[in-house]
Amino acid sequence: MKIRLGVIFGGESVEHEVSIISAIQAMNKMDNEKYEVIPIYITKDRQWYTGEILKEIDTFSDLSLIRRYAKNVVLYEKGGRFVLQNKKGFRRIVKELDMVFPIVHGTNVEDGVLQGYLQSIGIPFVGSDIYASVVGQDKLFMKEIFAASDLPICKYLWFYDKEYEEDSEEILNRMKKLGYPVIVKPATLGSSVGIKTAYHEEEAREAIDEAVKYDHKIIVEKLVENLMEVNISVLGNYENQQVSAIEQVIPTKDFLTYEDKYIGSSKSKGKLGGGKFKSSKGMVSANRVIPAPLKEKMKEEIEDVAVQAFRALGSSGVVRIDFLVDMKNNHIYINEINNIPGSLSFYLWEPIGKEYTDLLDEMINIGIRDYKRRTNKTHSFDTNILKGFTELGGLKGVKGIKGGKKF
Asked: Is 388 left (phi over 0), alpha (psi -120 to 50) or beta?
């Protein structure tokens, strides 16, 4: 019997279109002998749709097709079953699910929000849990944990947009002490959205103005010079980990931009979802060298740090971990972890003999094991502390409540 697998993608995120590309790539590679693949698309205004039409990339060139031919649904638990039910007209159950596979990127979907909902209704899902998802999306939380784990990170500072509004000179002075050039980043975005380099104060002001469009928390990092950017993927959970090949990515600027990652050198005229390039192949579009031209000692160091970072965050499934290498001083810095990387980093596994279909299969099996582990742990007690309130005179008998009127 096939596993009824709901693939969730899209969402209210600046990485919406990237998610569509990643999900359709994955759905086309899933083993149809094992899985009944059920697409679940979340629009930018947070409406959920399902239907076979959502497996085709051309559908997203005209969003009216989705409203016309797909079904607007809600996912919930009903009598021990996980169902997609029509929101409009007759509230019929459209599909029943056994498990879901979130292939989402960015705010409100990759950052623990979606994972929290899935975990709260109890459905098994693929990938990192709420905690790892939150930390994996927030670059500041991530850096604090990496620092506490003695992993090599670049010098940085951070601030809130309100602090910059109230005293921009104090923030700029801190940046000057950090030392130009720097990279300014929104703390909770991915795909290099809102990121700019600054070589002096005027550029720093411009970079901050750009970053605060997207986030209220901003990170400023010392730019690594003599830079090589390399990425590695890790597959597993806290119990077991595998590492992929290491790639060198070739940026067109001081860092790998959105265009470098998802558009590459293609010049498509078509558009995806009213926004991005229809011909994009996701992260496969980036210019890269696999394997990265690294000495064996540095390769082993990157692999070791990647596994440590994966374990420190409690990640699960497939992640991509990005590193910055100072080639002059032979020093590596861990940059960030991507909990649900673009294209699920399948292109880093194929060079070592793991085909995309097999990678997806392993991710799903890890998700099943994670679900079994979660459900075997104690999360609540049979004791009901509310029992006996009547005998106690309402709420008066509960410690800390006066007269049963306050909490």
From this structure: left
